[in-house]
Design a protein that fits this description.
Largest sheet: 9 strands, parallel
Helix content: 40-55%
Structural class: alpha/beta
CATH superfamily of the largest domain: Aldolase class I
Number of domains: 2
Shape: globular
Distance between the termini: 39 Å
Order of helices and strands: EEEHEEHHEHEHHEHEHEHEHHHH
CATH architecture of the largest domain: Alpha-Beta Barrel
CATH topology of the largest domain: TIM Barrel
Length: 334
């Protein structure tokens, strides 16, 4: 069993805990990240941000750089295929004072790959090296990188890429052990994470198919990685960090939250989102999260259908508040 509340370091940043929130486009905003930090996430990350948008000071792009100081340690994740633009973005990020800059070399989304960025760079390790060196040499912050195992099954380059990235000065590497071509259609090959761990001295972060405490412990044991990263399994389920931490420390499963507890966390999420982003920007964003908060709850399909049809975040808040009140009334008659 692991004692996870030891203090480790990435670069010169001290990290208490070993379970990290992965960046997820359109989902891991400041509101959700702060909830995950409260629940025990050791590090959180911004959504993936276009370096060119940062350099051009695009208003919409710069919105993604907002974070609450209570979220620290936090990484700002950037992507791009131009070493010059990535270097300039790194310089500009200094003024925002995140804990790390994270380079995305793993996103398989077609709109990113078509630009030659994200996982497209897995096909060109020379370019990957130029981008990594440019960011490291133009930032006083620790720089980390996220990669996949390779572009396709005939192009498994995770070990070679990780050795090269370490030589460039990258402070930690996250490994998602699927290829870009498979995206999420096949199980992760955790043996690749172990191969990387054996090949480098910097911290290695394992990512892929962590759905709960048992899988988290299994990844640590099988790969000997330093940290694990939880992504999709945290949506509508931020208490996963608390449950993993407890299991790794105590060796027993912490109970799933009750229906009432889930709704209370959901309400906190809604209210903070409205406060941080305003009602207009929060409405569609909240609908993405709430369908996951309600997963497994009796009658959830009808409730979700109603919520999807609502026009404002305030209406969503009222709907969840009424559900919570109804649940408490039913409990009082038990």
């Amino acid at each position: 069993m692991f004692y996870i509340f030891i203090v480790m370091k990435i670069g010169d940043v001290k990290i208490s805990g070993r379970v990290i929130l992965a960046p997820l486009s359109g989902l891991t905003d400041s509101t959700f990240r702060l909830i995950c930090r409260k629940m025990g996430a050791a590090i959180v990350s911004s959504e993936m941000i276009c370096a060119e948008g940062i350099v051009k000071e695009n208003t919409r792009t710069l919105r993604y750089l907002f974070f609450d100081r209570r979220e620290k340690p936090i990484a700002v994740q950037i992507y791009g295929d131009s070493p010059g633009i990535m270097a300039e973005a790194a310089k500009m990020l200094e003024r925002f004072s995140p804990s790390f800059i994270d380079i995305n070399f793993g996103c398989p989304a077609s709109k990113v790959v078509k630009k030659g960025a994200g996982s497209a760079i897995l096909r060109d390790l020379v370019k990957m090296e130029k981008v990594a060196r440019a960011v490291v040499e133009n930032s006083s912050l620790p720089v980390t990188a996220k990669i996949r195992s390779g572009w396709c099954k005939n192009n498994i380059i995770a070990v070679d890429a990780s050795i090269m990235l370490e030589d460039c000065g990258i402070a930690a590497i996250s490994i998602h052990p699927r290829t870009s071509k498979t995206e999420y259609s096949e199980p992760s090959d955790w043996s690749i994470i172990k191969d990387v761990k054996m090949a480098v001295k910097i911290p290695v972060i394992g990512n892929g198919d962590i759905t709960g405490p048992v899988e988290a412990e299994k990844m640590f044991k099988e790969t000997e990685c330093d940290f694990i990263m939880v992504g999709r399994a945290s949506i509508g389920n931020p208490w996963i960090f608390k449950r993993i931490n407890y299991y790794l420390n105590e060796g027993v499963l912490f109970p799933e939250p009750s229906f009432e507890e889930k709704l209370e966390i959901c309400l906190e999420h809604i209210r903070d989102a409205i406060k941080n982003n305003g009602e207009f920007y929060s409405t569609s964003y909240l609908k993405k999260h709430i369908q996951f908060y309600l997963k497994g709850i009796r009658g959830n399909h009808e409730i979700i259908k109603e919520i999807i049809g609502l026009y404002s975040a305030k209406e969503i808040e009222l709907k969840i508040k009424n559900l919570l009140t109804k649940n408490k009334l039913l409990d009082s008659y038990d």
